[in-house]
Amino acid sequence: MLKLDKVSKTYKTGDKALHNACFEVPAGQVVGLIGPSGAGKSTLIRCINRLVEPTQGSITLGDTELTGLNRRELRRARRRIGMIFQEYALVERLTVMENVLSGRLGYVPAWRSYLRKFSADDIAQAFSLLDRVGLADHYNKRADALSGGQRQRVGIARALEQNPELLLVDEPTASLDPKTSRQIMRLIRTACQERNLPAIINIHDVMLAQQFSDRIIGLKAGEIVFDGAPDALTDEVLTTIYGDEDWTQLRGDNAEQSTDPETPAVDLAEGV
Ligand SMILES: Nc1ncnc2c1ncn2[C@@H]1O[C@H](COP(=O)(O)OP(=O)(O)OP(=O)(O)O)[C@@H](O)[C@H]1O
Predict the structure, then answer these.
(1) How many whole angstroms separate alpha carbon 221 and alpha carbon 229?
(2) In terms of DSSP H, where are the helices of the chain?
(3) Among the atoms of ligand 1, which is closest to the Cα of residue 11?
(4) Which of 77, 102, 122, 143 could pair with 118 as two cysteines, CB 3.0-4.6 Å apart?
(5) Is the pLDDT of residue 39 over 70?
(6) 41 Cα to the center of ligand 1, angstroms
(7) Are strands 81-84 and 166-170 parallel, antiparallel or unpaired?
(8) Where is this region: Disordered (predicted)?
């Protein structure tokens, strides 16, 4: 369980990026975090693992108050939080397997991580995760030889290799085509369901968020203006968050893409 209590962030520039954010995310829940550009989505995600220091409020993961930790304790706590990034953040010249194993680096002693020595269990788990994200045959390829969708799957496997208690996902599909985006979102959601893992996904595409989240949190100018079920995200609510748009047409376009016959209805679902 993740809990945010009155979390605010004002940058040194005076930008009030987040104001009094309060919510809890129970185990296994996938939260889609939406809102216009500059609403504070990245700030909120980064406050949770303290890549950005909140100005006020408390953030608790399980029994640990993340906001109260010193640097060393924070390093240890970050092992419990898997991150998935828009630009994948892979080490391009390393193999797929080495990238996945790097998810364990926070766990192995410094000398072993320097020599990149991993236990047999870590390696077996990495193989199993690569199999589950559909990349078992690619384990020995260099990361820079992969497509965007494949890279993001490596990013997902690396985050899961950490055995995290929470996933923070920052615009995972922003660099991907619509079909690959849906596959990646399905993969993240299924992985969370199987592991009872909570996740917060910062996502620009409202329709994808609605399709693959258990809950939506809508931010506008640093304030939470919506927190509810994906079905409750009516055109009126969307207009509150984003301003006027032709939501009916946007939904129509998306429905066409979702029924794209080339997109298997359950692709990867069993494999994750
Ligand atoms: N390092 C920073 N220093 C000063 N202001 C910042 C910094 N990072 C973000 N901001 C400001 O905080 C506000 C929220 O930004 P943030 O990046 O969190 O929004 P966002 O919803 O993630 O936007 P986007 O969808 O465009 O990535 C904006 O006004 C932004 O200009």
Answers:
(1) 21
(2) 41-48, 71-78, 96-101, 110-114, 120-132, 148-161, 178-195, 206-212, 235-242, 247-258
(3) 4
(4) 122
(5) yes
(6) 8
(7) parallel
(8) 252-272
Q: What is the pLDDT of residue 111?
A: 54
Q: Ligand 1, closest atom to CA 40? A: 18
Find the 254 Cα to ligand 1 centroid distance in Å. 28
Q: Is the pLDDT of residue 266 over 50?
A: no
CA nearest neighbour of 48 among 88, 104, 13, 9: 9
ipTM, 2 decimals? 0.97
Question: What's the pLDDT band for 252 if we cut at 50, 70, 90?
Answer: low
pTM: 0.88
Q: Interior CA angle at 37 toward 255 and 247, to 5°?
A: 30
105-109 long-range contacts, Cβ below 8 Å, gap at least 24?
106/75, 106/76, 106/78, 106/79, 106/162, 107/79, 107/162
Average pLDDT over residues 53-80: 94
| Residue spans per domain, the chain | 2-258
Which CATH number does the domain 2-258 belong to among 3.40.50.880, 3.40.190.10, 3.40.220.10, 3.40.50.300? Answer: 3.40.50.300
Task: Please check the confidence at residue 264 and state whether its pLDDT lies above 70.
Answer: no
Residue nearest to ligand 1 atom 13, measured at CA = 17
The response to whether residue 39 sits with its C-beta less than 6 Å from ligand 1 reads: yes
- Tell me if 17 CB under 6 Å of ligand 1: yes
Check residue 267 and give its pLDDT: 40
Q: Is the CB of 259 under 6 A from ligand 1?
A: no
For atom 18 of ligand 1, which residue has the closest CA? 40
Give the lowest-confidence range in 73-82, 101-110, 148-157, 259-268.
259-268
Instruction: Report whether 28 contacts 196 (CB < 8 A).
Output: yes
- State whether the beta carbon of 28 lies less than 6 angstroms from ligand 1: no
